[in-house]
Design brief:
The complex is a heterodimer. Chain A is mainly alpha-helical. Chain A has 32 helices and four strands. By secondary structure, chain B is an alpha+beta fold. Helices cover about 35% and strands about 20% of the residues of chain B. Chain B is built from eleven helices and 15 strands. Classes of the chains: A mainly alpha, B alpha+beta. Chain A: InterPro entries: CENP-I (IPR012485).
Chain lengths: ~725, ~375
């Protein structure tokens, strides 16, 4: 079957080598003109184009053995053929080269084997090849190969009229014993009523008497009898096995691969792509649940006759403007699954909000996923390429709609229990991050338990991936909330008696469960991985989302990180983590402050618990004491140790070992600063930085290194005496509630 | 047969679960927080909870009385390959005549693919008939069973040769979970079980036509060992009323090369083992809760009884042959009432008890539903 996608390109030999392809896609943002120039340039140097030129110009009698040019060019053609298929012109050139035996018979077979068309086979090429066949120089085995090739590609030949007119020439080959079965098959495909002549019938009967009742002769005769029963008086068995044997095994797999590849190339474009379905025999269709059905209009549209409006099938709309014009009378396709490839159609679906349509799509999608991953015992690996493309397409659709399909949700809950955590990880995690809010009553069973098992038994990279996925899940839940809270009247300040407020609290419960869950994962994960800074970075990403839930998403919920996250971040050896923690603490403060004022103003109790304030203040005191006041390990702080133990560790001035100067993350900055401040001095005396003036400079120096979080933290929490009098500021402002 | 079609009606769900117009999944989640009983909102991961642990004992009734015996004879004594079907969109029991035409045209078109000529007479050699089998449904929610038959005549056969039945299949729903069926929107018809028999290529053609015409998905349905055990028990339970012949069980043991063990039990022995299990359990029940309903009920069979029954058989086998069957899987069960295979093939030999079997299979099919 011809695939229509390639018709977009110019008809010459474009898109030939992989490099050319990627270059084109990379330059898509640049102007078309530049891209065009680049394309032409690439084309001129393209080994494939050069190879075709070589084969069309090569002189007869050029030796093959020891000829590197032939080998090189042939390899170039083969590479393109097996990766994307040959464009029609290339088919013509190569077929002409092969059948003319310009370089003898040995390259001929090799060329025939790689003649995989990308779109169609030009009829003229086939006719010319038959002409060469009539010349009769070609070895018999090669002739058979050629006829087999024609049979395989028969459906891809762009027209059949000239082939019908050389019926007689083809018929003359039936006398060739080895060629006869294949020629009969070809004739069977080409026979029309007018081709049935008495002399042909006689010839066939003659052959039959010589060769016996061969099935291929019988089939051809039976077809003749169907057309002209008066000419074929022979009695044929009433039941015959239909069809000829398939001879396409040589090219079949390559052809299918090429067709698949070509049909998937267009899917991501934002247009109403009308995909032609690969023509596959239903008998062979066993394991392709993942095939997106073709977009076709419905047959059984028994719309109620009262609606006199004319419906336009989606399949007829090829442009966005057409879609807009017909927006109110569009008929949905027969199979909703076909919409998955087309973002515009999905958007239309989203805007009409047809529940049945969504359900149909979900049935199809869920069926495909279940069959492929859950019911299929043979495993997924065998067609992983296809699976990958399917899932990517699904993900891009979900991304486009900004929500997950409920069938993927249902599928994931089952699949997570059997997932090994590595199979198609990016895709599965991507789907997972799209699932809608899970009720808090079952979130543990459905989500947390399988994820926990996976988290603790997998590598660092899986842990990072999962935290990232949960972060994006949280972001999506919050975004949905901020959008639909307004739309559905789920105003946060509604009084507490309506059921709607109940659902808000349900939502908050789910969210809280999720945040606590990630807190637990993060605490243990950091311990297992030895506070790996990569993992820490993903965890801090998550808390950057959490700390802003109130201000950014209007959700009256503040959850502090657990100690297992806070302290590793505070004592991290890289300054970036400490800086980000400072930023997060700053945002917590801003959120809590504004929640407090709002609570006072409206008097309507949404309530952030005292416990949260207490936790926050505790962390704040720890941070300020530790970084600023050099009062580490004081009683009442989170980290307490016995005096004797600390003394016996022989760390001098242990109480200041985590201030801005001695903190392992900032020590190098302190040294550098000291060098810049006192270039002459050999001895590095950190205490000199602690004097008020250099301290101020030191802070400025740190801010200048890009530690914005520290700056925000210090400026909002520590009031330095403006007179810069007696040393570093020490007050905590306004947070003791 | 088509005379039925005007009478049969696609069941209209009288109790529609109230839905909000928007089907945003986000809002569904909100809904499920409040506990609205919509199947879209319900948490699909909990499907295991839907497994039935107790069933009614089969009784020989209904089907033989309510279904046209001619039609009934088409359904029994034939081996059917099972498939599950997601709910059919826009299926109308009143349109069967038109479906016959469409399916015929589809088959003819598919047959001619790859041929450059139109085979004349192909259309006239085939005949497709859709018909309603009335009286199969056990509840009001069940849609009527639809039977599809394809008759064919060879191209070279003479005019008056009768057409042979080359393919038949039926879509059914017997006592389908009312929660599920009712939660579907009005334009869906739930006929989750497809039994087909005939040439493979026709099966795939009919399936792909169904998929295209009603936007459904069809997948193969196998009968797992638990369900085979159920069938063994339910069939044995019928023995006093209708002789079950012999209870034949087939186990596959995972050894190399695979070992198949056929285990044939005399019907009377099987029945005695079964009734002793039931008696035993019922006594226990009564001790526990006095005269209770539930599993002690004469009409209902409990999963515990089934497991014990099969365990009893396995133990017996172990005593004699020192082979522990619990390492293998039950792959086939057959009695005079029917044969069921793990691969999803079933033959119902006696129409009297077919309802119970079909109820079980409908349930299996519904469990396969993706949403």
């Amino acid at each position: 079957m011809a695939t229509s996608q390639n018709s977009s390109g110019p008809p010459d030999l474009d898109s030939s080598s992989p490099s050319d392809q990627s270059a084109c896609s990379r330059s898509s943002n640049r102007s078309l003109r530049v891209a065009e120039i680049e394309r032409r340039k690439n084309e001129a140097e393209d080994p494939f184009v050069l190879a075709l030129k070589y084969f069309s110009d090569v002189e007869a009698g050029t030796p093959v053995t020891g000829n590197d040019d032939v080998e090189r060019n042939l390899v170039a053609v083969e590479r393109v053929a097996y990766s994307k298929g040959l464009p029609p012109e290339a088919i013509s050139i190569m077929l002409e080269f092969a059948m003319s035996l310009r370089m003898g018979t040995s390259p001929c077979v090799r060329v025939l084997k790689c003649l995989i068309p990308a779109t169609v086979v030009p009829q003229e090429a086939v006719v010319r090849a038959v002409v060469w066949l009539c010349v009769g120089k070609i070895p018999l085995s090669t002739q058979v190969l050629f006829i087999k090739w024609v049979l395989t590609m028969f459906d891809m030949i762009d027209a059949k009229d000239q082939l019908h007119s050389i019926y007689g020439f083809l018929f003359s080959f039936v006398t060739e014993e080895n060629l006869c079965p294949y020629i009969c098959h070809l004739l069977y495909l080409l026979t029309r009523k007018e081709s049935v002549r008495l002399f042909r019938v006689r010839k066939l009967l003659d052959l039959q008497s010589k060769m016996g009742r061969q099935p291929f002769l019988m089939h051809l005769l039976s077809l003749y009898k169907v057309f002209c029963p008066e000419l074929v008086t022979l009695s044929l068995p009433s039941r015959m096995k239909a069809g000829f044997r398939n001879h396409n095994s040589q090219w079949k797999s390559a052809l299918i691969a090429v067709q698949k590849k070509n049909s998937f190339q267009v899917t991501s474009s934002v247009s109403l792509t009308v995909r032609l379905k690969d023509k596959t025999n239903p008998r062979k269709r066993k394991h392709n649940h993942l095939e997106v059905p073709a977009l076709s209009s419905a047959v059984n549209t028994q719309t109620n006759p009262s609606s006199s409006r004319k419906l336009v099938p989606l399949v007829q709309l090829h442009s966005f403007s057409l879609l807009l014009e017909n927006l109110h009378h569009i008929e949905l396709p027969a199979q909703m699954g076909s919409l998955l490839g087309s973002s515009l159609a999905l958007q239309y679906l989203d805007c009409v909000q047809d529940e049945s349509a969504f359900l149909r799509l979900n049935f199809w999608l869920g069926h495909a996923l279940h069959e492929e991953f859950l019911f299929c015992s043979s495993g997924v690996s065998q067609n992983s390429e296809e699976v990958l493309q399917f899932l990517d397409r699904l993900l891009s659709s979900q991304h486009f709609l900004q929500e997950g399909f409920s069938s993927t949700e249902a599928f994931l809950y089952k699949f997570l229990n059997i997932w090994d955590g590595s199979l198609l990880r990016p895709q599965i995690l991507g789907m997972l991050s799209n699932i809608p809010v899970v009720p808090s009553s079952c979130i543990r069973q459905l989500l947390f338990e399988p994820l926990m098992q996976l988290f603790f038994t997998s590598t660092l990279f899986f842990k990072c991936g999962l935290i990232e996925c949960l972060n994006s899940m949280l972001l999506k839940w919050l975004t949905w909330h901020s959008v639909y809270a307004l739309e559905d009247g789920l105003d946060i300040s509604l009084n507490s008696h309506t059921s709607i407020n109940m659902t808000l609290s349900g939502f908050k419960d789910s969210l809280m469960e999720l945040v606590h869950f990630v807190g637990r994962l993060a605490s243990v994960g950091l311990q297992i991985e030895g506070c790996h800074s990569l993992l820490l970075s993903f965890i801090l990403d998550f808390y950057e989302t959490v700390c802003d839930m109130f201000l950014k998403y209007g959700l009256p919920l503040v959850v502090m990180p657990p100690a297992g996250v806070f302290y590793p971040a505070l004592f991290a050896t890289d300054p970036v983590s400490v800086d980000r923690l400072a930023h997060i603490m700053y945002r917590y403060k801003v959120n809590l402050m504004s929640a407090k004022t709002q609570e006072k103003q409206t008097e309507q109790a949404f309530h952030i618990s005292r416990q949260t304030y207490r936790e926050f203040n505790h962390y704040l005191v720890v941070m300020v004491n530790c970084l600023w006041n050099s009062k580490m390990f004081q009683p009442g702080m989170g980290v307490e140790m016995e005096e004797e133990l600390l003394v016996s560790s022989k760390v001098p001035q242990y109480w200041s070992s985590f201030d801005f100067i001695h903190h392992p993350a900032f020590l190098s900055y302190a040294v550098d600063f000291h060098h810049k401040c006192w270039p002459g001095s050999r001895n590095v005396d950190f205490n000199s930085i602690k004097h008020p003036k250099p301290w101020g400079w030191y802070l400025e120096y740190l801010y200048a290194q890009g530690f914005e979080g520290l700056k925000q933290f210090v400026q909002s929490n520590i009031s330095r005496r403006s007179t810069a009098g007696d040393g570093q500021g020490d007050g905590l402002s306004a947070d003791q509630r | 047969m088509e005379r039925h079609s005007s009478v049969a009606e696609t069941p209209v769900n009288s109790v529609m679960v109230q839905r909000r117009s928007g089907s945003k999944s986000f809002r569904q989640s909100y809904r499920s927080c409040v506990g609205a009983a919509s199947h879209l909102g319900y948490t699909p991961g909990l499907t295991t909870r839907r497994l039935t642990t107790s069933r009614r004992a089969p009784r020989s009734r209904t089907v033989t009385e309510s279904v046209n015996p001619e039609q009934l004879s088409l359904l029994v004594k034939k081996e059917w390959q099972l498939s599950y079907v997601t709910p059919l969109h826009h299926f109308r029991h009143t349109q069967l005549r038109s479906y016959s035409r469409q399916l015929l045209a589809f088959i003819v078109a598919e047959k001619q693919q790859g041929l450059a000529v139109a085979l004349e007479g192909a259309e006239s050699s085939l005949k497709v008939v859709f018909s309603v089998v009335e009286g199969m449904a056990t509840t009001d929610d069940d849609a009527d069973t639809v039977l599809i038959q394809i008759h064919s005549k060879s191209v070279f056969a003479s005019q008056d040769d009768p057409r042979r039945l080359v393919w038949s299949g039926w879509l059914t729903c017997i006592n389908g979970s009312p929660d599920y069926v009712r939660s579907l929107p009005k334009d869906f018809v739930c006929l989750p079980l497809l039994c087909s028999s005939g040439a493979q290529w026709l099966t795939s053609l009919v399936k792909s036509w169904l998929e295209r015409a009603f936007d459904c998905c069809i997948g193969s349905l196998d009968i797992n060992s638990v369900n085979l055990q159920w069938l063994a028990a339910l069939w044995t339970n019928c023995h006093p009323e209708s002789n079950i012949g012999q209870l034949k069980l087939m186990w596959t043991l995972p050894v190399d090369p695979p070992l198949e063990i056929a285990f044939t039990v005399h019907p009377q022995d099987a029945w005695e083992l079964w009734s002793s299990m039931r008696g035993q359990l019922q006594e226990e029940e009564q001790e526990n809760e006095g005269v209770g309903e539930g599993a002690g009920d004469k009409d209902s069979v409990d999963i515990d009884e089934v497991t014990r029954f099969i365990d009893g058989l396995k133990n017996h086998f172990y005593r004699h042959f020192r082979l522990d069957l619990s390492a293998g899987t039950l792959s086939q069960v057959s009695t005079a009432l029917g044969t069921a295979k793990h691969s999803g093939r079933i033959k119902i030999s006696s129409s009297s008890y077919m309802n119970a079997t079909l109820m079980l299979l409908t349930e299996c099919a519904l469990l396969k539903m993706p949403v």
